[in-house]
Amino acid sequence: MVNLKGKHIYLRALEPKDLDFLYKLENDTSIWEISGTLKPYSKKVLRWYLENAHRDIYDVKQLRLCICTPEDSCVGLIDLFDFDPKNQRAGMGLVISNPEDRNKGWGAEAIELLCDYAFKVLNLHQLYANILEENTASTHLFEKLGFVKVGLKKDWIRSSSGYKNEFLFQKINSHAS
């Protein structure tokens, strides 16, 4: 049995009450570079997104979960994206919204919980993560959790300061059939 509850956080599905959190996070221009966002989201669009968030990962090829504290405070989001059931893989993305909430172990715990779910429930063979070369904190985090740096995509992300390199990390499910 896979549990989406850890020692310090738990993962849960998006709910209508998350609209304001999602609105703030999706419109935070400091993370647009890594999320690929090009324009602000309206509450109307995000409300529609939340109304459809229940759809199955096999249908929409994505799973987005809230990272919550035991006090039910949503501190971030963790995603599986580009879900590929044929090749049994998916990308993984993570964001802790408030910089003051980072480096508390919540991201690591969320990644461990989602890896366990992806490997045991979805029977994935591998997960991957794309991390900007300059993001040493995320690089360290994913390496600590067993992801292996397998490549460098040069000039991959265009930013206001020029092009940036992005690492590709993979974690292979050693227990997969």
From TrEMBL:
Supply the PROSITE patterns for this chain.
Answer: GNAT (PS51186)
Q: Which UniProt keywords apply?
A: Transferase
Q: Please report a single Pfam family linked to this protein.
A: Acetyltransf_3
Name the UniProt record assigns to this protein: Diamine N-acetyltransferase
Q: Does the keyword Cytoplasm apply?
A: no
- Tell me one GO molecular function of this protein: acyltransferase activity, transferring groups other than amino-acyl groups
In this protein, which residues make up the domain named N-acetyltransferase?
9-170
PANTHER family hit by this protein: GNAT-FAMILY ACETYLTRANSFERASE, SPERMIDINE N(1)-ACETYLTRANSFERASE
Q: Does the keyword Transferase apply?
A: yes
